[in-house]
Amino acid sequence: MDVAIGLIFTYVLLSLICSGIVEFLSAIFKFRAKNLQKVIENILGSHAKEFWKQPLIKSSSHPSKKPSYIPVENFVETIENMILSGFFDKNDKTNFKEVLKKLIEGNGKHMCISPKTESSGFENTIAYFLYKSSSVEEFRRDLGKWYENVRYRAQGWYKRRILKWLFAFGFILALLGNVDTMQITETLYVNSILRDSIVKQATEFWEQHNQQGENSTGSEKEKIANVKLNSRQNAKGKQDFIAELDTHLKILPIGWHGRSFSAITKSPLLFFEKILGWLITAVAVSFGAPFWFDLLGKLVNLRSTGRKPEGIKERDERK
């Protein structure tokens, strides 16, 4: 179990480094905003340009970039405004609910998006919701559920993309730092002093950050993601976090040495074993820090409950 704790602790630290790199690149290149923009353009088609021009959407955007998140209620209200502007005179003072009610009662047949173009998937979807809705509230609810389903799938696309980035950076980091899972496992197994030292650091690390995560709100995974190691909000916090990572990394059996580098260049078998070890590390990193932090906590708790009290342990040793 101690070997597993040491190995998982290594994955936690590496995952945090790779996650930080991916988060930085995501902010620089606006991955989330671009992902949402692609989703909106896919579901709205030619009406996407009109959607981005709506006041409610523009107010949540910066002039230089699209928003990275649009709440369900904002999406529904924006689509409602687009429907009204497409069918009725903008100066019409009729109550919105009455106008939408007329559309619903007409089963969407009076929907006039553009007489010059054929109906798109978005137009057919709206017409279907109007056709099946018996009230304004039902129409809004169906429209909101539709958007939530689309957004959920988009989050899946984004997560898969992030996993690829984590794997790529995990492999690069494993290669540059010689973070070989098989070598680490072997070293921890034979070196009890190093193993005990790493387990101690891993336990202290988990206890410290888990306590901070308990003070946050949300699900268990959200708490794990909101601990100090993932909430570096100011410059000093970032510096302290980097220093903490550096302290933990120094004790791990990783890194290049003249002997290890020359050995793999002379032995093809050892070279392929190294590649396998790096690949295993990269795959582990792609699972993300929250996963490994949660698993680390379970093993730490299991180890503490299964360990004998000091007094009993000393008596057993004297026997």
Automatic annotation (TrEMBL):
Keywords: Membrane, Transmembrane, Transmembrane helix. The keyword Transmembrane helix applies. The chain crosses the membrane at residues 6-29, 162-179, 275-293. This is Uncharacterized protein. The lineage of its organism: Bacteria, Pseudomonadati, Thermodesulfobacteriota, Candidatus Desulfofervidia, Candidatus Desulfofervidales.
